[in-house]
Amino acid sequence: MSTHPGKDRLERVDEMALILSPAMKDARLPAAGGSRGFGSRMSPPPETALMLRELRVEDEASFKEAVAEFRASQPEWGFAFHFDDTADFRNYVRRVNGWPRGEDLPERFVPNTFLVGVLQGKVVGRLSLRHELNDFLLRIGGHIGYGVVPSCRRRGHARAMLRLSLPVARSLGIGRVLLTCDDDNPGSIRVIESCGGVLENVLMEAGMSVGKRRYWIDLAKPAIEVSR
Fold first, then answer.
1. Residues with Cβ within 8 Å of residue 115, at least 6 apart in sequence
2. Which residue among 109, 141, 181, 196 is buried most deeply as judged by most CB within 10 Å?
3. What local confidence, expressed as pLDDT, does residue 222 receive?
4. Are 90 and 59 in contact (CB under 8 A)?
5. Distance CA 119, CA 190 (A)
6. Of 58, 81, 77, 59, which is closest to residue 69 (Cα–Cα)?
7. pLDDT tens readout for residues 25-65
8. What is the Cα Rg of the chain in Å?
9. Which residues contact 28 (CB under 8 A, 6 or more apart)?
């Protein structure tokens, strides 16, 4: 998982948010602390709400800015998978939006839904929802991986994107979602635990300098209560 470590407490999410994905075309999620369950029908969110949706052609400039920002601040972590910013962006959008159907998957990838967090037209993060787990994902990677653009952190976006992805996972028939993060990443720990993550163990394997925390979120629960 990829939220920036830090001591600042992440704000709670108190905005309405919308999921737009192949799995949940018109789902709505209430604000943090709301009593409605996954997929509740609500009015469209205001323009200030964060949306989690498929990548679109019109995101090109903002998406490339996000990629560049990650390259400058965290070159070891890829914001975009198999992305060539000199290639036709339309082809890239077409490719990633085919991954949920298992089309044109990169080597060792499982079918997954690639989504971007968008706020007022700006890409502020991305989230990958893997539809199944291979051995590596079961041990290390988990069902969901996300990242927030460095200049957009500590604003609750990671938590919002994770919350919004859970109904999508449930609609795909995933009963329990596995999330992982480094043992020394307090930001991700807060995000996962605030969205209902229950720690199973901390895995340490040969070659790892930091343990990997493995959390499960039970999607059978009617709602996710976000801690304040």
1. 21, 52, 53, 54, 55, 126, 127, 128, 129, 161, 165, 168
2. 181
3. 61
4. no
5. 22
6. 77
7. 433 333 333 333 333 344 445 556 999 999 999 999 999 99
8. 16
9. 16, 18, 19, 39, 40, 41, 42, 43, 45
Q: Identify residue 213 by its one-letter amino acid code.
A: R
CB 41 within 8 A of CB 10: no
User: In this structure, what is the dihedral angle of CA atoms 84, 85, 91, 93, given to the nearest 10 degrees?
Assistant: 100
Q: Please, what is the Cα angle at 49 between 118 and 20, to 5 degrees?
A: 55
Cβ atoms < 10 Å from Cβ of 209:
7
DSSP secondary structure code for residue 61 in this structure: H
Which residues of the chain register pLDDT less than 70? Answer: 1-48, 222-228
User: Tokens 């007022």 sit at which residue?
Assistant: 120
8 Å CB contact between 65 and 83: no
- Give CA–CA dist 34/49, Å, rounded: 16
Q: What is the pTM of this model?
A: 0.78
* Residue 72, phi then psi, degrees to nearest 5: -75, -40
